[in-house]
Specification:
single chain, mainly alpha, MetI-like fold, 13 helices
Length: about 325
């Protein structure tokens, strides 16, 4: 009987253990990339916003003249505000402007966003036309509108001549100047706010609107119960950003300075323009710094109240 023996098996090759890859993990690389993108903007905010705010808070405790002489006066600059009638008048003008401009700009911008949310022929040109005013310098915008509204010789006066309104001075009449300023401001910002709201509308699921339409909801009901709740975060951002811009933004100074310089009869003198006059016309740098800190404090308080009452724009019911 012949027996066969199996050939000796070859030793199995050992699989080398995988070593962890050298270098950073993907999550950490993404975090570093995000910080790298945020760093330039954060550095700019630190240098050009945060640091000047701290310095302004310190200067508010001094009396500073135009020659750089500092005299410590404690809280005297803040005490002067109580009897400053022009300050209270400028605060009243600013408050009137804010409560008029912010809702009108929001409603107009939301309507434009709803208008251009659907694609049709020439939609790109329409969106560009609405956004175009926002990319123009406010100084140029002010000069253009000043040319259009110049008394009796402006283009608008000639257009209104058949209606007997050619003699109306929109920028020279105290009762009309602030309203004219509001209209120009709305025209300037509506394109920017339209694009922000349009981006929010793009995130509203089309399926929800279609389901509501199938259930028999009207256009108004679909807007009220589907679109509006989902648009609350975006709307909150637009309102807060618009409020801050109306109080301290460029249109609160550049536009009014070019158009009326605070006139007529201080009818358009905003608080930012008044601070500018105190600092660079009357050389009251310390008082201007105190005014700035108070305005910032009021703005922070108003923003905090908006966050508290609207839950930061969240649409949940919790």
């Amino acid at each position: 009987m012949v027996t066969t023996t199996a050939p000796p098996s070859k030793p199995s090759a050992k699989v080398p253990a995988q070593r962890p890859k050298a270098g950073l993990s993907r999550k950490r690389r993404e975090a570093l990339a995000a910080y790298a993108f945020l760093a330039p903007d954060s550095l700019g905010l630190l240098i050009f916003v945060a640091l000047p705010m701290v310095l302004a808070f310190g200067v508010a405790f001094f009396k500073v003249d135009g020659f750089g002489n500092y005299q410590y006066v404690g809280l005297d600059n803040y005490m002067l505000m109580a009897g400053d009638d022009q300050l209270w008048a400028s605060l009243k003008v600013t408050a009137t402007y804010v409560v008029t401009f912010v809702p009108i700009a929001f409603v107009v911008s939301f309507a434009l966003a709803m208008l251009v949310r659907n694609h049709f022929r020439g939609i790109g040109w329409v969106r560009s036309a609405f956004f175009l005013p926002h990319v123009v310098s406010l100084v140029v915008v002010g000069l253009i509108w000043q040319f259009l509204l110049v008394d009796k010789r402006g283009a608008l006066s000639k257009l209104l001549a058949p209606f007997g309104l050619s003699d109306v001075s929109f920028l020279g009449t105290p009762s009309l100047a602030l309203g004219t300023y509001v209209v120009i401001s709305v025209w300037f910002v509506m394109g920017y706010q339209m694009l922000v709201l349009l981006a929010g509308l793009k995130d509203v699921p089309k399926e929800l609107e279609d389901a509501a339409e199938i259930d028999g909801a009207s256009t108004l009901q679909r807007f009220r119960f589907v679109i509006w709740p989902l648009m609350r975060p975006t709307s909150f951002f637009v309102v807060v950003n618009s409020t801050i811009g109306a109080v301290t933004g460029l249109q609160a100074f550049d536009l009014v300075y070019v158009l009326t310089k605070g006139g007529p009869a201080r009818a358009t003198s905003t608080v930012v323009l008044y601070i500018y006059e105190q600092a660079f016309t009357f050389n009251n740098m310390g008082y201007a710094a105190a005014l700035t800190t108070v305005v910032v404090a009021i703005l922070v308080a108003c923003t905090g109240l908006m966050f508290a009452f609207t839950k930061g724009g969240r649409f949940d019911e919790d």
